[in-house]
């Protein structure tokens, strides 16, 4: 009750400006940070919780249960920036190897990889190893017709960009679409360079344009 009263402005006339009357105290004591588009009690709680979690994750994991140990290991791996810089693109290249490599980042993918490449196998690896749904989303959830059991659901996955509008609309959507394509081209060039594959910018642009066209068809 004290917090509610603190967030009010009882000096304001509720019949003239009810918003100021109800929220004036909050507005006077809080400024929206430059990094945020909104600021509420839930945002404050989230910030406070992140500080608490940071403290917990930085404590020793000796004697912790396995789940806590895994969380602390993940946190430490993200904070070890020197090792991240040292490893450079190696983790990404290893991941690409697991999923059958990337045609645009290979000199002879059609000859060396395609004969033994199975889409079903690679989709399952993407799902199980990387929690990434491509083309098909598959998950286990409560059965809508019988809540006492769980069943496998198959659905459409999310798109590379936030919504279908980004693939077809003009204006800012088109700017994002162009930047999205350029981002794909840039990453492909970087990986080719790291794998010591010969430079071929026109090939990369053609391949990424095909990827964009394919993703647009899926969005449609």
TrEMBL record:
It comes from the Eukaryota. One of its GO terms (molecular function) is metalloendopeptidase activity. Residues 14-220 form the Peptidase M13 N-terminal domain. Pfam families: Peptidase_M13_N (PF05649). One of its GO terms (cellular component) is plasma membrane. One of its GO terms (biological process) is protein processing. This is MMEL1 protein. It comes from Spizaetus tyrannus (black hawk-eagle).
């Amino acid at each position: 009750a004290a917090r509610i009263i603190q967030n009010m402005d009882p000096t304001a006339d509720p019949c003239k400006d009810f918003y100021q009357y109800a929220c004036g105290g909050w507005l006077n004591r809080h400024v929206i940070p430059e990094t945020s588009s909104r600021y509420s009690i839930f945002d404050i709680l989230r910030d406070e919780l992140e500080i608490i979690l940071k403290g917990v994750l930085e404590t020793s994991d000796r004697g912790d249960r396995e789940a806590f140990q895994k969380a602390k290991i993940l946190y430490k791996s993200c904070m070890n920036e020197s090792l991240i810089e040292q490893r450079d693109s190696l983790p990404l290249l290893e991941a690409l190897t697991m999923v059958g490599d990337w045609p645009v980042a290979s000199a002879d993918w059609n000859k060396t990889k395609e004969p033994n490449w199975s889409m079903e196998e690679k989709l399952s690896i993407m799902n199980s190893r990387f929690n990434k749904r491509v083309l098909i989303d598959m998950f286990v959830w409560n059965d809508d017709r019988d809540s006492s059991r769980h069943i496998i659901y198959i659905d459409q996955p999310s798109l590379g960009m936030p919504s279908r509008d980004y693939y077809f609309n003009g204006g800012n959507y088109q700017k994002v679409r162009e930047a999205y394509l350029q981002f794909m081209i840039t990453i492909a060039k970087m990986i080719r360079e790291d794998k010591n594959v010969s430079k071929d910018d026109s090939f990369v642009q053609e391949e990424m344009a095909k990827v964009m066209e394919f993703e647009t068809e899926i969005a449609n």
